[in-house]
Amino acid sequence: QLTVEHELQFKMLQAAFFHMPHPSDSERLRLHLPRQPCQTPLYYPQVSGLDPLV
Amino acid sequence: MVTDQFGMVGLLTFIRAAETDHNLVSLALGSDLTTLGLNLNSPENLYPNFAGPWAETPCRPQDIDYHVPQEYLTNQQIRGKLAPVKFDRYGEDLLFYMFYSNAGDLLQILAAAELYNRDWRYHKEDRVWITRAPGMAPVDKGPNYERGTYFYFDAQNWRKVPKEFHLEYDKLEERPHIPTPGG
Amino acid sequence: FQDPPALQEKTEVLLREWIQMYHSPTAGQGSASAFQHFVKQMNLHGILKTDDLITRFFRICISMCRDLCVRSILEQGQGPSPTYVRSKCFQNLDAFVRLIALLVKHSGEATNPTTKINLLNKVLGLVCGIMIHDIESNGTEFQQLPYHRILIMLFLELNAPEAILESINLPVCEVLMAFTQTLHLLRPSKCPGFAYAWLEIVSHRVFIGRMLAITPQQKGWSMYSMLLADLFKFLAPFLRNAELAKPLTMLYKGTLRVLLVLLHDFPEFLCEYHYGFCDVIPPNCIQMRNLILSAFPRNMRLPDPFTPNLKVDMLPEITVSPKIHTSVANLIQPPEFKKNLDSYLKNRTPVTFLSDMRTYLQQVSNEPGMHYNMSVMNSLVLYVGMQAIAQINSKGLTPSMSTIAHSAHMDIFQNLGVDLDTEGRYLFLNAIANQLRYPNSHTHYFSCTLLHLFAEANTEAIQEQITRVLLERLIVNRPHPWGLLITFIELIKNPSFKFWSHEFVKCAPEIEKLFESVARSCM
Question: What is the mean pLDDT of chain C?
Fold first, then answer.
């Protein structure tokens, strides 16, 4: 069973869950093309990047 | 037999409980770790492109900061002089670049929307952009399809390639939906 | 408390001035020109006069940056997009971080890192203190963003490839130590509201690179192992409870991803620190534990465990002892237990030792599943095994089914198997199974030991529990440690164990099917 302390820890974690870190939080500020993640259709490429030679 | 939780019956009870309680599954049977978005067969190290514990894909090339000579950092000087981002000003080449290098980002959708405006259509099954070859009408056309020569954009070789297609209209994406800000 | 008069106002003015200068096109490369001018301002205002004033200055700056950021976040509900809000926060926070980095780099003499490190430790200590106070004051309203941004950007700034920074970081990794200490103070059990941000920092590609790859002689490894153990210790009670609500599933899944990266890129790290990790990972966390135990050195080629007639005792690797960074002997507590243990291993006296062992392993607790001290159990098992291997080797022999038997060491293991209740036995067998890893002397010895205990068991309950411990590690999704596979394959294939004749193999249709499926994939 969880102790009272664990229940409190969970409450704090749960609160943090609703404002989890964003990938841009660990990146240099980009004013012109900031990250704007959004749901894209599954048939679009899901991984960025192109062949380096290309 | 051992009748408490520490024998085979205990294991069986836990497995049976996990069949209905999805929270228990992840501990009872674990999960398929190959679906976490990491290329576990990669001959290169994963950490240089690791995008974080909750990223489904590795870092995009543009996300990886690198310490370059200070002289290269001209953004402070030119910042005020850059034109705002407007997709209708860009060539197809750049639109395709934006589309393929910004997976999961609003920029991908905006690039797709502009390509749609320029009569490119995204084939949902073949996963390529297609447009009609100028001056070449379809050789066959029905209510739900057409057939003829089209250009598709080959992202691997970075060029437009003519090809014959039998196009079912329902396989082509309609106008991309641009999410509302904050949505 | 009791800031000198007007210090708050002075600090606010200075901070605003600095932020403006930082963003100005005339700031210079790396904000050098701006910094030169700003230091003069700080001197003019007397900020750099005393250590106390510098400390208060930083404290007020951190609080102000935090307040500005939190205010922006709260305004988000009224319209501004998340991207805009973050951009606004970062403009202030990044400027402040640049100031800290420059002050650290340029304080004291260029060739003497002590002043610089002291200043860094001071700032990090202030961040910790303010954050902990923030959490205590605001509880679930706590916002991690400003602290996360300060810590990660400061880390990135201080790990730039500059000579002055390399002189601080080498040869004793002072910057890494400072950040490790900070992150340890802010570990998830202490600051659960910061747990997600904490894991983002600890698993950041630059942080991992510095800790595990770039820093020479693996000096970052023990620091990183401490941080990982902090994470496991936080997760442990919730994983033991087995009810994983979404916030915990998220954290657990993130942990698995990080472990996968470590398994792929730094398997030797997991190999060398596996013992400490297994000490804190709860027994029911089987896949996560298997991940760690599956690690093997990159230069090793593992023989296919499914090879017919695989002669494990002919493998050269089984004579090599794995590196373990824990002093296992010191974990056998109390000292009296260790003394009696050593005496028994040497002389098989005192005779009461075997029956007394259980008392040392148990702990006072009414909670189910908490009746035994797992740390003492694990250390006892590994210590006895290591002593056994050493003794066998001293006779010019290698561990095998015949050489491991008839020894004080095996007396201890057999006694534990018989004397402990089902819970104790389960934990004891888990301690053995935790050593079934890549080919090495420990894997081989403990594989033989487990099979020996099965063969020599005087009750079917012992055999059942050995089977349970092996099977539950095999039915989870991959990866599976090599040693686990070869032990189980030997158990089911070798007719001398009469495995298939036991009742527990057929006790329920699901169990029968499980065994058939596992046996099919093994054979």
Answer: 93
Q: Which residues pair with C187 in a beta bridge?
A: none
Q: CB contact, 8 Å: C299 with chain A?
A: no
Choose among C161, C122, C173, C141: nearest CA to C71.
Answer: C141
- pLDDT at residue number C164: 83
C260 vs C255: CA distance, rounded Å: 9
Residue B9 in contact with partner chain C when CB distance is under 8 A: yes
- Asked if B105 and A50 come within 8 Å (Cβ–Cβ), the reply is no
Q: What is the pLDDT of residues B16-71, one digit of tens each?
A: 888 788 777 677 788 899 999 999 999 999 999 999 999 988 988 888 888 888 78
A partners (3+ CB pairs within 8 A) are B, C
Say whether C209 and B11 touch across the interface (CB within 8 A): no
Q: Is A19 on the interface with B (CB under 8 A)?
A: no
ipTM given for this complex: 0.93
In angstroms, the CA C454 to CA C466 distance is 7
Chain C closest CA to A54's CA: distance in Å? 26
- Residue B62 contacts A, CB cutoff 8 Å: yes
* Contact call for residues C94 and B65 (beta carbons, < 8 A): no
Structure tokens at C52: 């106390």
Of the candidates C15, C10, C206, the residue with the CA atom closest to the CA atom of residue B47: C206
Sign of the CA dihedral running C382, C383, C384, C385: positive
In whole angstroms, what is the distance from residue B138 CA to residue C455 CA?
Answer: 77
C-beta atoms of C87 and A9 within 8 A: no
SS3 letters across C232-298: HHHHHHHHHHCCCCHHHHHHHHHHHHHHHHHHHHCHHHHHHHHHHHHHHCCCCCHHHHHHHHCCCCC
Q: Which residues contact C216 (CB under 8 A, 6 or more apart)?
A: C170
Residue A14 forms contact with B (CB below 8 Å): no
**Residue corresponding to tokens 């089977």:** C467
Kindly list the residues from chain A whose CB atom is less than 8 angstroms away from the CB atom of residue C97.
none
Contacts of residue B27 in chain C, CB cutoff 8 Å? 239, 242, 244, 284-287
What's the confidence (pLDDT) of residue B183?
44
Answer yes or no: do A29 and C94 touch at CB < 8 A. yes
The pLDDT-based confidence of C523 (bands split at 50, 70, 90) is: low
In the predicted structure, residue B87 carries a pLDDT above the cut 60: yes
For residue C523, give Cα distances in angstroms to A46, C504, C519.
Answer: 39, 20, 6
